[in-house]
Design a protein that fits this description.
about 240 residues; 13 helices; globular
Length: about 240
């Protein structure tokens, strides 16, 4: 318990408002507004949030195109599709049999709960998490981008970027990280929307698995180049 309390205190100090807004400002100045989420309707956002699990967005776009081509990107239309037909349509997104079941579960949930927007954010999040195949990240994607609620999405890109900055530990739990960001930042859905989109953009451009640190807008804030230099010096001495 003491170790966890110490970790939370360190996280709170590291994810300060000034630090997080400095990152946001530099990313926004470099890349500009991202106009996320790339979808035409809230329902399309929800479908995309399920399909993007464990796959690249380019693959999701292909699956979304397939659904649109047969006019199945509506709640009732998607529910009416036979399971094997739905699986083939979303095949480009990978894990298509698993995701078919998750989409069907989500659609049945939405059909049975038509007034979800009337729930407060915490209650809505709990309801979403009760749906088969909807974990914290997917639920928060839906809350932020479909329902426009002020929740900060923690994905692999967020962990990679802020881990390399040296501001979060690898073993920080999802809720600890989400709470850290939401405590440090103003409760603003538009800000969270743009911030998450900018993180995704930056990681794709500069902070990939093999980072491109040259001309990175965050290099002055980042611990990664120094860590790599220190590792290199240690290797030479060894």
């Amino acid at each position: 318990m003491e170790r966890q309390a110490g970790r939370n205190k360190t996280l709170a100090l590291t994810l300060s408002t000034a630090r997080l807004m400095a990152v946001y400002g530099r990313l926004f100045d470099r890349y500009g507004p991202q106009h996320w989420w790339p979808a035409d309707t809230p329902f399309e956002v929800m479908v995309g949030a399920v399909l993007t699990q464990n796959t690249a967005w380019s693959n999701v776009e292909k699956a979304i195109h397939n659904l649109k081509a047969v006019e199945a990107l509506k709640l009732e239309s998607l529910l009416a599709l036979p399971g094997d037909r739905l699986a083939m349509l979303i095949r480009p997104a990978g894990y298509y049999n698993i995701k078919r079941k998750r989409l069907q579960s989500l659609c049945r949930f939405l059909q049975q709960n038509p007034a979800l927007e009337q729930l407060d954010t915490q209650a809505l999040r709990e309801r979403l998490l009760s749906v088969h195949g909807i974990g914290p990240e997917t639920a928060d994607d839906i809350l932020l981008y479909a329902f426009e609620r002020p929740v900060f999405v923690i994905d692999a890109y967020t962990r990679r970027l802020f881990g390399r900055l040296g501001w979060i530990a690898d073993d920080c739990g999802y809720e600890t990280l989400r709470g850290g960001f939401e405590t440090a930042l103003a409760s603003d859905a538009a800000l969270f929307n743009e911030y998450h989109a900018l993180i995704v953009k930056h990681v794709k451009v500069h902070c990939s698995k093999r980072p491109l640190c040259d001309n990175c807008p965050l290099v002055e804030l980042c611990a990664y180049p120094d860590d790599q230099l220190a590792s290199g010096i240690s290797a030479v001495k060894t």
